[in-house]
Write a structure and sequence with these properties.
Blueprint: H1 12-19, H2 26-38, H3 55-59, E1 61-64, E2 68-71, H4 76-80, H5 97-119
Antiparallel strand pairs: 1-2
Helix pairs in contact: 2-5
């Protein structure tokens, strides 16, 4: 090897695992749990039966496969794509709740937390 030759043995998979960035790794677990917890104030809620009881929508939120936050009700999709519905707690609570949470500082909050986890 001459004085200008350089050999690099970099393994991307090892790097991803060391940082906790793999699927279901510690960063994914943090993001999933924090998102599920912090999106709740944006989720439609109404104690009346007017919208097929969206009060249960909050209770239906759960994590699947350790990666996906899911609202498992037959009417969740309908409520998500109809921001014109006027829920108790509107305009914070309503349609597009995941997008609005992320735009309202949630994305920055999740990114900051993920960076802290990677530093460990």
């Amino acid at each position: 090897m001459s004085k200008h030759d350089y050999a690099c043995n970099f393994n991307l998979d090892d790097c991803i695992k060391t940082l906790g960035l793999e699927e279901k790794g510690r960063v994914q677990q943090y993001i999933t749990s924090e998102f599920a917890k912090n999106v709740e104030p944006f989720v439609p809620f109404d104690i009346a039966e007017k919208y097929e009881n969206p009060g249960r929508l909050i209770d239906s939120c759960h994590v699947e496969n350790e990666t996906d936050v899911v609202w498992n009700t037959p009417y969740a999709r309908k409520l998500y794509y109809h921001p014109e519905y006027n829920f108790q707690g509107a305009p914070v609570r309503g349609g597009y709740w995941a997008d609005r949470y992320l735009q309202d500082g949630g994305l920055d909050e999740l990114e900051k937390g993920a960076r802290e986890i990677v530093k460990k």
